[in-house]
Amino acid sequence: MLRRPRRNRKSQVIRDLVQETQVATHDLVFPMFLINGINNREEVASMPGIFRHTPDMLIDEIGECVELGIKTFDLFPSFDDKYKDKYATISYDESNFYLKTIAEVKRQYPEVVVMTDVAMDPYSSDGHDGIVKNGEILNDETLEVLGKMAVAQARAGADIIGPSDMMDGRVEYLRDALDDNGFEKVSIMSYTAKYASSFYGPFRDALDSAPKSGDKKTYQMDPANANEALIEAELDELEGADMLMVKPAMAYLDVIKLLAENTQLPIAAYNVSGEYAMIKAADQKGWLDGQQCMLETLTAIRRAGAKIILTYFAKEFAQLQKG
Ligand code: PBG
What we know:
Layout: H1 12-18, E1 28-34, E2 41-43, E3 51-53, H2 55-67, E4 72-77, H3 97-108, E5 113-118, E6 131-133, E7 136-138, H4 140-156, E8 160-163, H5 170-180, E9 187-194, H6 201-207, H7 227-239, E10 243-247, H8 253-262, E11 267-271, H9 273-284, H10 290-304, E12 308-311, H11 314-322
Helix pairs in contact: 4-5, 9-10
The chain binds ligand PBG.
């Protein structure tokens, strides 16, 4: 036999020498959920190990994560129904606890990178990412709300704005709004190829943000399509996005690879709530080794071409790396 591929697998040292892909803690973004109040945290039932924190407890948790080497956090607020309206007005009200928490995180940890989510759903009485009129999700009218939301988040201190709404033209609209208000240094990580996925279920439980009627299929992408992701990527790039994201990750590794091969921008992938929940549930049942599945999953997402991974496993991964 001329070729024996097993020679390169004969010991851990050799395997490490030839290993093509590594995941580092600094590649990870930790998505975290925020609730109003003090000194409280509630575990998300469908996401074991993941909590909704009050601002003070979130600050403590971020401190622990920073010690472990996690430096980027994507913060998601859960608002009480009484604050929600059709136009997500509370989202850009400077007195809202989410914006105040962003400012406090940046005050206490100036080196930490705070990413935010730009979409109407956690603030909307309709539970949609845009303004609903006669059952339709309006595009251009929604951009105005998103612009105000992004500027308010930048003003609070956000470093990276994450439009997750999938309205057309929003990257350019947000870039202009940010620049016009003096926030030209604030980055945009666009949810470029965000699919209408059932893997977001646990997230919507965590934020109580499920649509009150209909679904998100007129704005989020059809899971059957990959070429369409190239159109979205081209537009986001032209409109000024700094990083492109694919979401979810595990069932969309081909899309991650496709975008990575067609752009020079860094690719991010969102290892979403349902993907986390599946591994945790199977681990709890003793059906899978959750830790090994986590490592394999993150490696596969990296291998497909994502440099950045948003994942609820961030803290667990960092703890494991630290030993
Ligand atoms: C808001 C938003 C969602 C997620 C991130 N931002 C939910 C949705 O679009 O319905 C999902 C994240 C996850 O499932 O972990 N637009």
